[in-house]
Design a protein that fits this description.
This protein is α+β, with helices and mostly antiparallel strands. It has helices at residues 2-25, 56-60, 92-103, 164-175, 185-198; strands at 28-37, 40-47, 50-52, 64-70, 76-83, 113-119, 122-133, 136-146, 150-159, 179-183. It is globular, with a radius of gyration of 21 Å.
Length: 199
């Protein structure tokens, strides 16, 4: 009888640990998001626990097409989308790194982390640096993805807390799901004309 009880206890413990382990590996929300900016559409998954915000233009400016916040920390993100021909890709990596270093008070450009890689076949850049957002010290993770018809620029402000490293893994995993899914040339041309009029 004792052997049977021990065996059942072992099985119960094993199943419970497997369940906990499975929950811990979920890094992305289950629902895929779709956004559109300047005629270019993208699909992706937000990191687990991140929820879309409503008042994004008040928080991040008129050009933001998406804003979200982490419900478990003081972390935020926003997305901008530009027409591909409006951003110079030649020497983009180093030029942007130098600009970010200058804006955020870094004495050495190399202190701004930069990674050049691909996201679903599209050229991409990631930058990490310390900055301030809403008066608080944060880590910023800035991603630029040069897809077929647009440039998606993601800014994540991550709280400098005990869960920072795990949060970065989840953010990276979310960015790795980004795909351009459509392009509306008529809409892009119309928006470009509007921008010229407003300047």
């Amino acid at each position: 009888m004792k052997k049977k009880q021990r065996f059942l206890l072992f099985i119960s413990l094993f199943l419970w640990m497997s369940l906990l382990s499975a929950c811990g590996t979920e890094t992305l929300e289950k629902k895929q998001e779709t956004v559109e900016g300047n005629g270019v559409s993208y699909q992706f998954y937000l990191p687990k626990g991140w929820k879309k915000q409503e008042n994004i233009h008040d928080l991040y400016g008129r050009q933001a097409v998406l804003g979200a916040e982490d419900t478990r920390s003081n972390s935020n993100m926003f997305l901008l989308v530009f027409p591909k021909d409006s951003v110079k890709i030649k020497e983009f990596g180093q030029r942007t790194r130098e600009e970010l270093a200058k804006r955020n008070g870094y004495k050495k450009v190399e202190d701004v982390y930069m990674k050049e890689y691909k996201v679903n076949g599209a050229p991409a850049y990631k930058y990490t640096f310390e900055t301030k957002f809403n008066g608080k010290k944060m880590w910023a993770h800035f991603y630029c993805i040069f897809s077929k018809n647009g440039v998606a620029q993601w800014m994540f402000y991550s709280a400098d807390d005990a869960n920072y490293e795990k949060r970065v893994e989840w953010i990276d995993a979310a960015i790795n799901t980004v795909k351009e899914t459509g392009f509306d040339q008529t809409k892009a041309s119309s928006l470009e004309s509007e921008e010229k009029v407003m300047r």
